[in-house]
Every structure is written in structure tokens, then in C-alpha cells.
């Protein structure tokens, strides 16, 4: 436990700094080499899906009689689209099963919206020289990279405990018709772990009524079934809300099996209105003759039994939860009774988002690296890598073992405390 820094005299602060510096030097000598950077499944998690290998056993016929080894089928295999429909909570007719990466599909969908338009040539975003995208912060760095790559200006909007600050989102859209998109990770958001409230989902579905007709919500439902416990909050179905609001064209939904089966060889899904799908497929058909249906078929067969997806995700949770619990225990022990840090007790996904006191994220990351613990670069959770408060750090504990997470968090909490005490001394 760290005493309340504001109550300490300068001499007491100096003594504390010296004690913490000694602890830091001792930790450095442990020669740790730990990595809490990217949210990847661990080897044990990947092992849960090893039965995919060889599963087809020479039977390459899909249910519809398609030889999956051959070209064709831009929409993907029906039985695999059914898996996507389960993940996305949408009718199978509205789901496309693509390649291995939802991020690729998001990039393609945003590029199509930008260059070609999602409702004909006049709707292309590039026709508006000031095309912009709303980015809830902290958020996912690779979403920001897509916007940056396309030259779409990013406008940060704050996250709240219920999702993006919807007053800010609605106000921005009312004031600026050049805003064409909003990024969302609605369940176990990357990195805050927040699940959007029903009210937030309802308001997002209404945005299509406030914004121009070319506006799209990029609903990246990457963690739709990735709960750590059975009590984790559910997410309202955005397309049900859109149907009620008459705004089905305003949302594009994405998911993948990257963190269900194999992160590098899963299947990605896009769910969208008929009109959006039609335009996206017209552009995709210039790009590919069809996706990897062999992989799609083995995924469909792997999850063919009712309830198998749920049971599989419970096995992931059993591996992930002790790692998350370890992070949360360290944070509670170190900062539960002081104001040196803030975080959310997440119930799913892959990340824990931690805020230091303003101005200390970069220094904490630097100190941790010095003691052998690699963290995601400070600022990565903000557009253009610029966290105006220099406070947010994303912790990704899935890959190291529980005892490695324990070691890494010992270093992390010490570095936050040391950086805070040094700042208080200035
Ligand atoms: N979306 C979010 C929010 C993520 O956190 C990640 C990976 O960390 C991805 C998408 C990547 O998905 P995929 O592997 O399907 O490209």
C-alpha cells in the first residue's frame, strides 16, 4: 500500500522515492523478460482448437454440394455464415464469411466507402475533402491506423462506463456533416473492457437519423462471446435497434474467430443490410474470386453441435480468467486505496485499461521496460498516438503464464508508484 502522497512532507517523499528506487534496482537485477503488449491468444488457448487440423478427413463437400477446394462463393459457405450469424446475432442472409481477418474486412469496407461509396458513386466519402471519423478513446490502435492510411481525419470522443459519450457523438454529428463514420467495439471494448449499455446501443442505432446518409457505424464486435464469467453483461442487438429506428443501412458489423480458434487462420464475418452488402460485394468481386472455403468448412464442422461454441469459449475463459484476476489483484492491492491509478474490473475481452496520474504513462512504460516488462507504447490507444493526458496504458495479460503476469504486475505497480512519487517531488 502506498500512503496518500499529498499527506507526505518533502522529506518523507524523498525517503519513499529512495526506497522505491532501491526496489526498482533490485527488480532490474532479476533480468525479467516479459511482454504485456498485444492481445493474442496463448499457446494453451490455441491448443483448444487443434482438432481443426485434419477435421475434414478428405470430405470437401459442403452441405450445398460445393467442392470447397475450388474457386468461388464470394458470400462464403452457408454453414460457416451460420456460425457468423450466431456471433453477430443477425440472419444468415445478411452475413458474409470472408478470409481470416476481420480487420482486413474493416479496411476493405472503409476503403470501399471512401473510394467507391456504399450507395453508388455519388456517395464516396473522398468527394468530401474533409471526411472525418469519430474515434472513442481510449480505443483500438489498428482502427486508427485504417483511418490514417485512408487520410480520414480522426476526432476523439471520450468513452464513459456505458460506451462512447453519446451527447458528444450526437453533437458532433449535428454540427459536422463531414463526419462519415464512428468506430465501436461494443462488448468488452478494446481497451477499456466496457460493454455498451442498452441505451447507448439504442442511441447509436438512431445516429443514422441525425447523420448524413453516407455515415456508417463500424461495429467491431470482436469480443461478442468472449466473457470471463457467466454474469458478464450482455450486449443489446444493434440491428434490432436499427430495424426499430429504420436505420439498418447505417451500421456495418464485424467479427471473427481469431480469438475463438486460431488467431492467424480463423474466419472473419461482415454483417450488413442488403444494400450495403450489395455494394461491398460488387467491389470485393474485383478483389477476389472467393474466400478460403476449406477453412470455413472445417470451422463450421468444428462448431456444428448446438452449444459447442459456448462450451469452447468457457475453456478460453478458464485459461484467461486467472491472468485477469492476477492483474486486478495487483492493481487493487497497490492502488485500491489511493489515487495513483484508475482501471475497470473487466469481465471479458483481452485488455485492462489503466490510467496513471496525468503525464505519467510514457514514464511508466519506460521504467517498466527498464525492468524487463514490455508494455504497449503509451499513446497507442489514441488517434495519431497522442494521448493528451499521457495517462492511458493498455495491459494485455493473455499470453504470459499466471506467474509471469504476477511478476510483470509487480514491476508495473512499482513503476507507476515510483513515477508518481517522482512527479510529486517536482
Ligand atoms: N478488433 C478488435 C477490437 C481487436 O482487438 C482485434 C485484435 O486484437 C481485432 C479486431 C483483430 O481481428 P482479426 O484478427 O479478425 O483481424
**Within the CATH hierarchy, at the fold level, what is the topology of the largest domain?**
Aspartate Aminotransferase, domain 2
- What is the correct CATH architecture of the largest domain? 3-Layer(aba) Sandwich
Share of residues in helices = 40-55%
Mean pLDDT: 97
β-strand percent reads 5-15%
Organism: Saccharospirillum salsuginis
Protein name: Aminotransferase
InterPro entries: AspAT_Ic (IPR024551), PyrdxlP-dep_Trfase (IPR015424), PyrdxlP-dep_Trfase_major (IPR015421), PyrdxlP-dep_Trfase_small (IPR015422)
Keywords: Aminotransferase, Transferase
What structural keywords apply?
14% strand, 426 residues, Aspartate Aminotransferase, domain 1, 2 domains, three-stranded antiparallel sheet, alpha/beta, Aspartate Aminotransferase, domain 2
Could you characterize the architecture of this molecule?
With 426 residues, the chain is α/β, with parallel strands linked by helices. It has 2 domains: 5-45 and 311-425, Alpha-Beta Complex (Aspartate Aminotransferase, domain 1), CATH 3.90.1150.10; 61-304, Type I PLP-dependent aspartate aminotransferase-like (Major domain) (Aspartate Aminotransferase, domain 2, 3-Layer(aba) Sandwich). Helices cover 41% and strands 14% of the residues. The protein is built from 13 helices and 13 strands. The strands form 3 sheets. It has an 8-stranded mixed sheet with strand order 2-9-8-7-6-3-4-5, sandwiched between helices. A 3-stranded antiparallel sheet has the order 10-11-13, with helices on one face. A hairpin with a 2-residue loop joins β4 (153-160) and β5. α3 (78-88) packs across α10 (293-302). The longest helix has 28 residues, at 308-335. The chain is globular, with a radius of gyration of 23 Å. The protein starts with 9 loop residues before the first helix and ends with a helix. The model has no long low-confidence stretch (mean pLDDT 97). The structure holds pyridoxal-5'-phosphate (PLP). The site of pyridoxal-5'-phosphate has 13 residues, from α4. GO terms for molecular function: L-aspartate:2-oxoglutarate aminotransferase activity. Keywords: Aminotransferase, Transferase.
